[in-house]
Fold this sequence. Notes:
eight-stranded mixed sheet
Amino acid sequence: MKRLAVHGTVLATVDRGSGIPLLLVHGFPLDHTMWDAQIEALCDRCRVIAPDLRGFGQSDVTEGTVTMEQLADDLAGLLDALEVGEPVVLCGLSMGGYVAWPFWRRHAARLRGLVLCDTRAAADTPEAAAGRRETAERVLREGPAALAESMIPRLLAPETLQLRPEVAERLRRVILASDRQGIAAAARGMAQRPDFTPHLAEIRCPTLVLVGAQDVISTVAEMRGIAERIPGARLVCIERAGHMAPVERPAELSAAIRAFLDRLTGSGTATGS
Length: 273
Ligand code: MLT
């Protein structure tokens, strides 16, 4: 991984392949390794940039609160540090999608396309925001173990949990290795994020919306609502996946992204809108 100084911190990132830049933005409380299969599958087609966000994986940690705006600005700074001048396709899952919204607002000229996986546009309810602040305090006190145990059953489809325990184990290892200050700062930042729903209709870049058919965190209905509001967006439902299709159904997810890239660049054999 490369380590780059960006906006007063150090971010670690995978940077592989060449072609159209594809920026893969991980969910909470994970790191770039959730995209390992997509990095392998797509680096023959594009320049895959898969960072660990501030506070996660091998990137440096900032204490306190890290907003989604800060994370979006970090990504723009990372692209500068990598000398990526060309607009990118930003593919964000869940918290990665929360970061995609301010990236679009603040760095729209850098966007060639959006892939929104299992995310939400709405802000947290006051109760949900309070729950995140409690999670932050608890993780600071007790570490990430309890968070791993409460989140993993909600991240994965029942079939994945029953038949592929190694997938849950992989996520557990990443969560347990996460820095408690990093988790707390992002949890507080997510609690502060504004409602993006009114802006969905203003998005003009080509957009693909992906959702696991059994996602209980960002449901199919919620993702359909996002796709219906973004002009021209296309919704693809990944069967037999929960919130984490990149690790549950990696080949299907990579194929959907590849087909989107092919449509965007006018190459390949993909069809459809
Ligand atoms: C994620 O996968 O990033 C989280 O589920 C986001 C959230 O807690 O809202």
